[in-house]
């Protein structure tokens, strides 16, 4: 959840760490800090609030050393404050930590009993105390880390430095990611490649309980017993430009506008453009992610088909926006392949006494690939030997690495905390998966496969036209922000999009918003409706359209103001709505990808009109690596 960066090399640690933390601010932003070598000690500077406050403080600081660590925090233990900001220092030891030490209460009590004094309310500080105690016994920093590693329970990625060995750093983890990049004259360690790619695209992903010992601009990897581990660098193909705003006022708006391109990149590897057929490529069932690039494609495809043929039931598990994508997937997969699908919120799934019949397939959806509950659900079903497929944006993230099969959103870096382009990419991948399952089960013929593939191929250009509603919402936001609340409604495949629309408005505008299946209106929500309530009705042309219009009339009769979203020109909808937004004509297969765009733009502009921080909404974080 927090972001960490460490630097050791011939450049300026202050600059590299600050730039790195800037790219990681989406992971947490309630306080930040650095500890950088200056003379023979590590000078620490910390600040409550966003990174620019730390940056201002650092403008007045100079450091003579070439090594340092930095952190941007999303509070889990101890409120956001300078006192709780990282790095935590005990005697000559400074550490930064991402994650949660679950046995912190016991360890803290033990340390207090042996005379340690704590200066923060965090779980993290005890790591500095533990290391310091080992150093006091005569161990070096690296040995001390090996000694304390078995004592730590929970999720952590940690960087540690010691004033006694001022050219060294030790990095270790269990859970949250930690990546090492080696440039010509420097080593950078960070929680995400975004902090590294400006310097090098060759990186190493630390595995759990591996320990990296960095010295100057070199490093060695060890396992928890202290035995050397050999590992190869991985090439990252994200360009630094991909993580910049490219002229948009916010990352979120940039990412909304990138959606057509993102969907095109998501579906591209899986479509035969000559024949308009789907070809699930490089799923690599049973292969490690390292092996994916080297697969014999024809053989891998046959393997995928065999896997899909066996499937009699599907479980989709995810959180937040990814969960709503999974709900859309249920409608599409069941309709096309006739395979029953259950969709679950990961935090519920993992604690229920789940019954998984033979021949089930388990699908995780996660943009980050690090969401703690989704990962726990995956590990649970793996232990039950259920085949798993991950739909993920971040290649080689923990979920991606641990799943048996792999599909990639190819959305590029998503910085805005509220997910947008990863969502539409997931919808397009679920469409392709549904088609592939239907082919494997022989529930569709070749002509309909080609028809659906063509529809999906048209969706990026259709999305471009929907983006024109940006101007409408920029103008309407001043009126929209005055509503008391919003009710989003839809039926069938549009229902999860109503839920997603409401979530976006909650996340960004902090307004009351609910998503409802339109058929449920008369079972409660109708009582909420008066002229202070805005109703957003998803009514594209599909086989539930007539029923949706009846629900719209009922809402309208109670005085609600209506924004309706439909297909093509539609006088009926225009007549009953305050605003009618027309989408390009498409079928139920593609409508969700199109209709979510106006809902994203609505949330974005209302939040912006209210003066909220759209990219970093309060209390939220992009990558939720704790329960
Ligand atoms: C957080 C983010 C959401 C995201 C959810 C699941 O709550 O703010 O935007 O949908 O996590 O994340 P995942 O990375 O697993 O898709």
Describe the overall structure.
- The chain has 627 residues and is of the alpha/beta class.
- The chain folds into three domains: 238 residues, Glutamine Phosphoribosylpyrophosphate, subunit 1, domain 1 (4-Layer Sandwich); 223 residues, 3-Layer(aba) Sandwich (Rossmann fold); 141 residues, 3-Layer(aba) Sandwich (Rossmann fold).
- The protein is 36% helix and 23% strand.
- It is built from 19 helices and 27 strands.
- An eight-stranded antiparallel β-sheet has the order 3-2-4-1-10-9-11-15, with helices on one face. The protein has a seven-stranded antiparallel β-sheet with strand order 5-6-7-8-12-13-14.
- Strand 21, helix 12 and strand 22 form a beta-alpha-beta unit.
- Helix 4 packs across helix 5 and helix 7 runs parallel beside helix 13.
- The protein is globular and about 80 Å long.
- The termini are close together.
- 6-O-phosphono-alpha-D-glucopyranose (G6P) binds next to helix 9.
Strand order of the largest sheet: 3-2-4-1-10-9-11-15
Gyration radius, rounded: 26 Å
* Overall pLDDT metric: 92
CATH architecture of the largest domain: 4-Layer Sandwich
Alpha-carbon distance between the termini?
11 Å
Number of strands: 27
What is the name of the CATH superfamily of the largest domain? Aminohydrolase, N-terminal nucleophile (Ntn) domain
Question: How large is the count of helical segments?
Answer: 19
Number of domains: 3
Ions and ligands: 6-O-phosphono-alpha-D-glucopyranose
CATH topology of the largest domain: Glutamine Phosphoribosylpyrophosphate, subunit 1, domain 1
| Highest CATH level, the class of the largest domain | Alpha Beta
Uncertain residue ranges: none
The backbone outline, from C-alpha atoms, is globular
């Amino acid at each position: 959840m927090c972001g960490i960066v460490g630097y050791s090399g011939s450049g300026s640690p202050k600059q590299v760490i600050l730039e790195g933390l800037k790219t990681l601010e989406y992971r947490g932003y309630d306080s930040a800090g650095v500890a950088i070598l200056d003379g023979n000690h590590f000078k620490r500077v910390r600040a409550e609030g966003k990174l620019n406050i730390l940056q201002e403080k650092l403008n007045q600081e100079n450091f003579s050393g070439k090594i340092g660590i930095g952190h941007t925090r999303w509070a889990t233990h101890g409120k956001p404050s300078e006192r709780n900001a990282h790095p935590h220092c005990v005697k000559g030891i400074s550490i930064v930590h991402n994650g949660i030490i679950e046995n912190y209460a016991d360890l803290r009590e033990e340390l207090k009993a042996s005379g340690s004094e704590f200066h923060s309310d965090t779980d993290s500080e005890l790591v500095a105390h533990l290391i310091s105690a080992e150093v006091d016994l005569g161990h070096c920093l690296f040995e001390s880390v090996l000694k304390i590693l078995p004592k730590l329970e929970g999720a952590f990625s940690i960087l540690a430095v010691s004033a006694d060995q001022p050219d060294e750093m030790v990095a270790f983890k269990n859970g949250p990611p930690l990546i090492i990049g080696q440039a010509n004259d420097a080593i950078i360690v960070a929680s995400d490649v975004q902090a590294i790619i400006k310097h090098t695209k060759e990186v190493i992903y630390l595995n759990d309980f591996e320990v990296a010992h960095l010295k100057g601009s070199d490093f060695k990897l060890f396992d928890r017993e202290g035995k050397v581990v050999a590992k190869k660098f991985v090439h990252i193909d994200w360009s630094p430009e991909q993580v910049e705003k490219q002229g948009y006022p916010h990352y979120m708006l940039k990412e909304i506008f990138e959606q057509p391109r993102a969907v095109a990149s998501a579906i591209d590897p899986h479509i035969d453009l000559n024949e308009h057929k789907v070809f699930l490529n490089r799923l690599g069932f049973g292969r490690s992610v390292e092996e994916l690039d080297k697969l014999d494609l024809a053989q891998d495809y046959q393997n995928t088909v065999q896997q899909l043929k066996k499937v009699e039931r599907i479980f989709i598990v995810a959180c937040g926006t990814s969960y709503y994508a999974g709900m859309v997937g249920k409608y599409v997969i069941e309709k096309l392949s006739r395979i029953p699908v259950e969709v679950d919120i990961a935090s519920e799934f993992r604690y229920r006494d789940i019954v998984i019949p033979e021949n089930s397939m388990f699908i995780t959806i996660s943009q980050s690939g690090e969401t703690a509950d989704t990962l726990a659900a995956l590990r649970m079903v793996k232990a039950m030997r259920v085949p798993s497929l991950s739909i993920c944006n971040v290649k080689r993230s923990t979920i991606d690495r641990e799943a048996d099969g792999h599909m990639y959103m190819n959305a590029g870096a998503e910085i805005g905390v509220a997910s947008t382009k990863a969502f539409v990419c997931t919808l397009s991948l679920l469409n392709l998966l549904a088609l592939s399952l239907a082919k494997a089960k022989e529930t569709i013929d070749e002509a309909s496969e080609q028809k659906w593939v063509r529809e999906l191929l048209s969706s990026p250009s259709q999305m471009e036209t929907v983006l024109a509603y940006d101007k409408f919402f920029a103008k309407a936001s001043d009126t929209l922000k005055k509503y008391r609340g919003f009710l989003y409604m839809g039926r069938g495949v549009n229902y999860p999009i109503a839920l997603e629309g409401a979530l976006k408005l909650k996340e960004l505008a902090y307004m009351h918003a609910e998503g409802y299946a339109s058929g449920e209106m008369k079972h409660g929500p109708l009582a909420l409706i008066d002229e202070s309530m805005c109703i957003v009705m998803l009514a594209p042309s599909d086989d539930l359209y007539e029923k949706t219009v009846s629900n719209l009339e009922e809402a309208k009769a109670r005085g609600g103001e209506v924004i309706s979203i439909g297909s093509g020109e539609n006088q009926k909808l225009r007549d009953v709505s305050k605003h009618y937004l027309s989408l390009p004509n498409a079928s139920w297969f593609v409508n969700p990808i199109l209709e979510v765009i106006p809902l994203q733009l609505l949330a974005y502009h209302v939040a912006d009109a209210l003066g909220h921080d759209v990219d970093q909404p309060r209390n939220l974080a992009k990558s939720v690596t704790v329960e």
